Amino acid sequence: GKTTIIPVLSSILSRPHQKMFIGCVAPQFRLIRRSVTSRLLHSSRVIAMSDNQLDNNISKPQSVATFAAGCFWGVQLAFDRLPGVLETTVGYTQGNVDNPTYRQVCTDRTNHAEAICIVYDESQTSYEALLNKFWAIHDPTTLNRQKNDKGTQYRSGIYYHSEDQRKAALASKEEHQKTLIKPIVTEIMEAKQFWDAEDYHQKYLEKGGQCADKGCETPIRCYG
């Protein structure tokens, strides 16, 4: 059916054959047609409603967050399990090459981080809760490395979409630092262009049979 995007967004950008969008907006919040794909521009808040949802007045504002915490396979599964998270997309951000491939990112020459775009329901969770999960699922004290994964693509990063998110990220970092001996090396920067990773990376561990149910606590196996 017809989808209406209610503009708390700044504008809409049409680029049919590219996978770029400023900041990040997850797939079901993009205006998509079989023959034409429109990308939404940078905003930390979007409202996406179908005609039926508009009629029933059941849609609520959704917010967007972007994080980098090592290999995005495990990061995606961890956030998919979090109540209040509506959708996630893995991709590449903060780099200097347009429409990068995974192979290019792995060269360490594009400066992209493996990242996750999260759309969440503010009535069920908060940006602060997402930050808490972010700190919990990786080691923010290792520079350009998470366990056996080495390279700038695996760096720790919080990429904010608003001044409120920036302040929340800095405050959260300060609080989390109190629990650690080593200094946190997480970069906190304004979100730049976000490029979808290849389809085979999306929901990789879930497609491999690992549990993505809300509240699931089964240990995540990043490569199994």
From TrEMBL:
Residues 65-208 form the Peptide methionine sulphoxide reductase MsrA domain. The keyword Oxidoreductase applies. Its EC number is 1.8.4.11. The keyword Metal-binding does not apply. Pfam families: PMSR. It catalyses: [thioredoxin]-disulfide + L-methionine + H2O = L-methionine (S)-S-oxide + [thioredoxin]-dithiol; L-methionyl-[protein] + [thioredoxin]-disulfide + H2O = L-methionyl-(S)-S-oxide-[protein] + [thioredoxin]-dithiol. One of its GO terms (cellular component) is cytoplasm. It comes from the Eukaryota. GO terms for biological process: cellular response to oxidative stress. Transmembrane segments: none annotated. GO terms for molecular function: peptide-methionine (S)-S-oxide reductase activity. Belongs to the MsrA Met sulfoxide reductase family. This is peptide-methionine (S)-S-oxide reductase. It comes from Phytophthora nicotianae (Potato buckeye rot agent).
